Structures are given as C-alpha cells and as structure tokens.
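Shapes recur. One chain:

:::
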Amino acid sequence: MPHADEIRGLLPRGFDIIGALLVGGGGSDADVTRALEQARALRELLFGVATSHGLVGGHMDAATGDIRFVVSESAGTDSVEGSVVTWEDEPGRLLWEKGCLLRCELPLKLPLYLRPDVNSGIEERFSSLIEYTVAKLRDPHVSYLVEGPITSSESHLSIILRGDDLSFDSHTHGNSRTNYCTTSIVSCSEFFTEKRHNLSLTREDADPIAITVNQSASSLKPGTTPVVEYFPAPASLRVIILKLDILCYTSIDFSVAAAVSELVIPGLADQMIVMKRIIASEITEQVQLCPFHFIPSGLHVPVTAIYNTRYGEIEERQSELRKELHIRLGLPLDRPLLRISNALTFGGTGKRKKSMPRSGSSLLRDVHRKIPSSGVSGGVMSLIDGSYEYYHYLHDGIDDNGWGCAYRSLQTIVSWYRLQQYSSIDVPSHREIQQVLVEIGDKDSSFIGSCEWIGAIELSFVLDKLLGVSCKVINVRSGDELPEKCRELARHFETQGTPVMIGGGVLAYTLIGVDYNEASGDCAFLILDPHYTGTDDLGKIVNGGWCGWKKSVDNKGRSFFLKDKFYNLLLPQRPNMV
C-alpha cells in the first residue's frame, strides 16, 4: 500500500483508470487479457474499490509499433476486439477544454503526543490524527471560500460553501450561467467569466479555481461554558506543521460543492498520508515538507512532488528522490524537470504574451516559433529543445554594434541553461564575460572594458567557468563546407538540444536548428542573428530575416557563409542531471 499512497499523492484527484497498455510479448489474447487484469488491479489498489465501468486493454508490438485493443465491460465478461480506434491529435487541448483545475492550500498545526522512551506506534497515532482532521473538514461549521481565476478585468466569482452544502448530489450539473443560483448548484464553469484562450497547461499559465478552508466560529451554543480537563501523562507534545497544497481536476460542468466533497477533501487526506510516512520515518528531525506542482514536457496532467526544503535542493536525498520520480513518470534522466524552479506558478499569469519571459525582463523568447518553412524538400527538421531569450546588438544600453555579436550569442546560450533550470546565475554582461576570461588567464587585464571580439573558444571557456558546461567544437575550413556538417548538427539538436554558436571571420551567429534531406544533401540553417539593432518587435525580426532559415547558397546564388573564412562551431553539451 505505500506505493499506492505515493501514487495517489503524485497524481491529481479527478482522473480514473480506464485501461492499460502492455508493450512486448506476442500480442495473444492472453497478453491483452493480462493488460485488462493489471488495469483492474491498479484501480482497486489506488481507489480501494473494484472497477464499476468498462476497461480497455491494449497490446503494442515493440518491433512494429502495431497496437491491438480490446474492451471489457466488467470482470469475468468476454472482451470485444476494438475494430475502430479514434485518436485525439491534441489530447491536452481536449483535456482542458472539458475540464479545469482546483487548488487548495491548507496550513495545519497538528498536536502529536509522544512518549519519550517509545517511538513505536507513531504512524498509528498519526493516522488517527489525520482521520480526525479529515472528519473536521466535513464539519458543518467549516466553510470553503471558492474563488475563480483573476482575469484581465480584475473581477472574479467567489462563493462560500458550508459543510452542509457538501452533501449535494454530485450528479446534478449546474449549467445555468447566473449569479442567483444557490451555492450548492454552482458549476465550475461559472468561475470562468471570460473565454479561456489558452487551452493548455504550462508552467506559466496555470490558473485554477482556488479553494480556501476557513474554520468558522465555535459550534458551542451561546452561554455554554468551556471545560478543560487535565490528565497527567509521561508524554511530550510535538506540533506537526503541515503545508498542504493540492490540485484536483474536474469537468467544468461538475458542481463545485461536489468537487470539494469528492475531490478536494480526499485529495487533502491523500497528501496528509504521504506526509505522515515521511515525518514518521524522520520524527526526530525538523522536516519542512512542501508540495510543488509540475507539468513536465510530454505530460498533459500536473503531478505533485513533496520535498523536504530544510536543506534545499542540494541535499543528496533530494536528488535521489527526483531521480525516482523521473523513473516512475517515464521522464528522461538527463534534464531537470522536477526542480523547484520548474514548479507551476499561479495567479493571473494567463494574459502574459507567450514571447515574453516569466521574469520582469523585456527580452523576447523563442522568436523562431512562427517563422515560414525552410524550403528544403523532404527535409527533416531538428530544432533547439527548450526556450531561450533573444540577445542582440544594443541590448541593456550597451552599444556593441560591430564587435559584440559573439557576446550576444553567448548570452542567448546562457539564457537557455537558465530557462531549462540547469543554472540560476544571471546572464553575464559583456564586462562580466571579459572578467571571466581575465580570471582564467586567457586575456590580459586591459581586456576588461574593451571592444575586442571573442570567438568560439573563448565562449567555451566562459561556459565551463560559469556553468561547468563542456563544449564540442567543430572546425570548418570554409563556409562552403558547412552543409557537410548538417548531419552532425542534426544529431546535436536531437540529442543535446542546445543553441550552437557559429563564428567565422568577425561575424558570429546563433544556430537553433537545421532542416536536412539526407538523400539529396539539401539543407538549411535556422539562424538567430545577434546583429539586429532594432526594437524587440517580433514581426519586424521575423519579416526582416533576423531569425529565419538560411541556405548556404540561396536561389539567387548568394552565399550566406563566406567561402574564404574559417568557421568554428561551438556545440554546448547538455548536463546529465535531474
């Protein structure tokens, strides 16, 4: 059961198990039957009850990728082969079109009495305390403040639910969009007063319905005298501080009263049980447990991890926990997806322009997203993996026109490592870059404050010093030979995904992708040009070709890369870490 508790704490309440997919094996009837049995067993383990609805069993041939599906109405009944399968192209969009998130934060202080000479039975006493706390959440004198997301109009619906409202029939849907309906039949859709334009969940666009638990006035009748009893006992009081923070998923037509009763309160109980196991195993330590919510790339639903923040993320046990979570969720083990800095942010962020970073910076981000196609017939695009900020001439009030292009390329590369959470250092200024090169002995002190160029080798020194990042360097004798490196560059973007700096003569560019036809050898380079001197106008940048596909020789015979110049390509490597 410990694993079931952990899974319940990891996934948001509101989802159900509808089937299982078995990979490998011969694809016999026994294989798909085994998938059905595993789905039933997992559902019963997680929810404590047998499946009351039909399940889908699937088998995928690992060699061919062919999938066979069967449907079973209930345990013991014959399964039926699925002859027609409809695939959803955008499952994430469908998910958030029909549903929404609820979030509940609840700080608690729980009194736990411990005998000084006995540590046994802690979990049992803690469990009783949790059961009592969950029961109090359904008390008629507890109220729930339910608030919709804050929109650009700065107005949002809010209602108060009492404990008596939570017995409302969950199958009744409040579809009437009126503010005069009783609180019991208000549906979740009522809390979204504006059309939701962004039907996806990202780290920066998470706007749930907020649930706040309030303990109402004492339930004692007027005139009742409070009574205190004292029982001397050989025990010490340990106040357990819990910071609960849960997410739940619900249909937008589900009543909010039913959602609180059937999703929020059980979700709070799930999280308390997970925290109980952690605290009971370290009862002598002052653990500081804090839940964080994530939406890792490739997943359409959020997950919640509980970290002990007492020692921060540098503690070895935190690293091991993140690795275990990566394995459990099928996430890659070479990139940080579940660090605290990756956590979802909440509260009125949905109207931010997607080209803008989350911080207060005015820099554009990911400017290549809507550029036209490359023109390579039958090519395969290999692009940068992740977000970056576009640094170019004249940023930050520095007039580096004519000499600062490599500095700007380096700043874009560092921004990639920051935005992928590999580092929290600030993007270095020109002067700070120069200081690093002086400190490591590559340049004389007179270099600081100068307008001297730097190249790929200097960039590799700075990345190693500031980020501990290793780099691979490709040397090309002439611009004409760059297309010969397209296969190698494509592999870099597929395996590393980092921006590449191209330096030749006195010019430097940032490469963020290639489009390559291996059969014909035709290719194009996706160039982010740091020589741009205008304002951060995305349309102007894209239409002016400052970010766009470039061929070594265009259809008019003009060469983008110089034939008589030697080129260095700097390929920063992705750190292998979680």
In short: The chain has eleven helices and 18 strands.
